[in-house]
Design brief:
388 residues, Isopropylmalate Dehydrogenase, ten-stranded mixed sheet, 13 helices, 14 strands, 17% strand
Length: 388
């Protein structure tokens, strides 16, 4: 088998975590007999510096033709004074739109070795294993009109939040498909007591839920969800929500694990899958070998799971992360007194060594079930309502 993966290292610590991710990808691919071709392109601030735009059309075209895309991080203070439409983040938004990756999956797992690293008490975060399903190509981030009117007084600005039932239906189906292979619970998060878009969101999600009678389903207002993530995170399995709420809640949920550097993500849809750590570019530590590579490496595990449908490889990577943490090795952002701090490169080397000794074996019956799950999850994203 042959696969092509585009790497977009980006800005700040992006190149450092991308290097770690690429090492793990090529190492595991070799172990499982997967021929991977890697190609790098600039994006974000680096692309602005080189070419004057946050992403090149040839990069977008290459990503469309690839089997998967990995993104490090984009942005930084250097480019904050540029007009909004020319900032590094615009390159990422354009890529998401062009690839039609409407479903952003953000798993939140608290490793047993890191229970004490969370700012919450251990009994609150132990065994937390949830996933946030965020709608990624609609809502405030993409709605029109969008403008800042700075001439005259008072100055004013507008953002438009818009969703149609098709957008809501397809992301809801994604969440329920995931839930039926997990603990069979979906919490749909909105602000239906205030927002018209949330009122439609509730109606459509309830219609989708009727097709999944085996899945427990509830609505929750976003402010209550923010509180419950701190009060009782173990109650959640799959959290379904729109673009902006998902952006905010997933960053909050990351702190359950002890660091934003722990959260991977997979953005899936009709085209190539996009994989990226949830954290930002962290320019203050760039080039110092202090970046936490775990989220980037775990994103590669998601790549094997969803784009390559190789669950056994995904699990081997996740086991290796757990094993390195269990030994007591820590990236700097997770270390407490007396724990062994490793730089980005050293941590990656230790993880690769654990992969060499892990039980990475051909798929067995359980893994084949997960392969089928990944296939049907992706197939569900092509759903077209018969009424349309």
């Amino acid at each position: 088998m042959k696969r092509k993966v585009i790497f977009l290292p980006g800005d700040g610590i992006g190149p450092e975590v991308s290097e770690a991710a690429q090492q793990v990808l090529t190492h595991v691919a070799k172990m499982v007999g997967l021929d991977v071709e890697v190609e790098e392109h600039p994006i974000g601030g680096r692309c602005i510096d080189l070419h004057g735009v946050p992403i090149l059309e040839r990069t977008v075209a290459a990503c469309r033709e690839a089997d998967a895309v990995f993104l490090g991080a984009v942005g930084g203070p250097k480019w904050d004074r540029l007009p909004i439409e020319k900032r590094p983040e615009k390159g990422l938004l354009q890529l998401r739109r062009e690839l039609e990756v409407f479903a952003n999956l953000r798993p939140v797992r608290v490793y047993a070795a890191l229970v004490d690293a969370s700012p919450l008490k251990a009994d609150r975060v132990r065994d937390v294993d949830l996933i946030i399903v965020r709608e990624l190509t609609g809502g405030l981030y993409f709605g029109e009109p969008k403008a800042v009117h700075s001439k005259g007084r008072p100055r004013w600005a507008v953002d438009t939040m818009k969703y149609d039932e098709r957008e809501i239906e397809r992301i809801a189906r994604t969440a329920f498909e995931l839930a039926r292979n997990r603990r069979k619970k979906v919490t749909s998060v909105d602000k239906a007591n205030v927002l018209a878009t949330s009122q439609l969101w509730r109606q459509v999600v309830e219609e989708v839920a009727q097709g999944y009678p085996e899945v427990q389903f509830e609505h929750m207002l976003v402010d209550n969800c923010a509180m419950q993530l701190i009060r009782n995170p173990q109650q959640f399995d799959v959290i379904l929500t729109e673009n902006m709420f998902g952006d905010i809640l997933s960053d909050e949920a990351a702190m359950l694990t002890g660091s934003l550097g722990m959260l991977p993500s997979a953005s899936l849809g009709k085209r190539t899958g996009l994989y990226e750590p949830v954290h930002g570019s962290a320019p203050d530590i760039a080039g110092q070998d202090r970046a936490n590579p775990i989220a980037a490496i775990a994103s590669v595990a998601l790549m094997f799971r969803y784009s390559f449908q190789m669950e056994h490889a995904a699990r081997a990577i996740e086991r290796a992360i757990a094993n390195v943490l269990r030994i007591g090795y820590r990236p700097a952002d997770l270390a407490s007194n007396g724990e062994h701090i490793l730089g980005t490169r050293h941590f990656t080397r230790e993880l690769l060594a654990r992969l060499d000794h892990s039980d990475l074996v051909p798929p067995h019956e359980e893994d084949l079930g997960w392969r089928d799950h990944a296939y049907w999850l992706l197939e569900s994203m092509h759903f077209e309502s018969k009424e349309k």
